[in-house]
Amino acid sequence: MSTLSADERKLWSAYIHSICGVNLDESKAYLIETRLSVLLRETNSATYTELYNKVKADYGNALKRKVIEAITTNETSFFRDTAPFDLLRHKIIPDLIDKRVKSLGTGRPIPIRIWSAPCSTGQEVYSTAIVLKELLADLARYDIRILGTDISDRAVAQASYGAYSKIEMDRGLAADKTSKYFTVVGETWKIRDEIRAMATFKTMNLLEPFAFPSRFDIIFCRNIAIYFTEPDKIKLFKAIARVLAPDGYLIIGSTESITGLCPEFEAMRHLRAVFYQFK
């Protein structure tokens, strides 16, 4: 099998950054080699340069999508890092509803708009929907719309279908939630329709311009910016700021911080979790 040369590493690093924003410096050369090795064999390419040329020459972009699938990790689980979901349950959703009732009055469905970016294979979206289902007794009183986006077509397809293997189910889901919110379909567990109906999914690159019909009350953007350069992080969070409601909530990864990068946001703490709001 071909090994990745220094020049090929630079070539591929620049290309990968251009198509999905992932920054792979010299220390990450092994990731390019290992994750593209299957595609190297699949396309009968003798070298990584030959593979690169085939990808660039593929006007249908099928090979480009396969590169994105290979490079992006899609690491996730249900109720991953439980603190954000405790934050939703005990702080954000109650506060948000109080504010919306005061501004809208009673008698109208209370809108709740949530964006999970990236959503990977959908576990974060469905974990959020389950929290809302358990917290809000009568869903008919609310107009809930959860959007999940990801750069991976494969991840979005699985998220949209909402079916998971036993291994995926065992990561973060208690037995009572499994039986309550999923049905067995063959060898998979499929999210029940009442939860699935709360969400929509689409493929999207976070570093390309985006706009939405209305602003979001809550945005999850966890553990993706760690793969970006600092200028790309600033670009991403400034774009997110434009689609977040003035009193909305931004939740990022537990090991991440945007303090200093985006002065328009202020870090707030509740229990074990940190979230961001406009100053």
Number of helices: 11
Identify low-pLDDT runs. none
Count of DSSP E strands? Answer: 10
Q: In percent terms, what proportion of residues is strand?
A: 15-25%
For the biggest β-sheet, the strand order reads 6-2-1-7-8
CATH level 1 name of the largest domain: Alpha Beta
Shape descriptor: globular
Architecture of the largest domain, according to CATH?
3-Layer(aba) Sandwich
Euclidean distance between termini CA atoms = 54 Å
Helix content: 40-55%
Structural class, from helix and strand content? alpha/beta
Overall radius of gyration: 20 Å
Q: What string, H for helix and E for strand, traces the elements in order?
A: HHHHHEHEHEHHEEHEEHEEE
Task: Explain the overall architecture.
- The protein is an alpha/beta fold and about 280 residues long.
- It folds into two domains: about 5-70, no CATH class; about 85-279, Vaccinia Virus protein VP39 (Rossmann fold, 3-Layer(aba) Sandwich).
- The chain has helices at about 5-20, 30-40, 50-55, 60-70, 85-105, 125-135, 155-160, 165-170, 175-180, 195, 230-245; strands at about 110-115, 140-150, 165, 180-185, 190, 200-205, 215-220, 245-250, 265-270, 275-279.
- Strand 1 (about 110-115), helix 6 (about 125-135) and strand 2 form a beta-alpha-beta unit.
- Helix 2 packs across helix 4 and helix 5 (about 85-105) crosses helix 6.
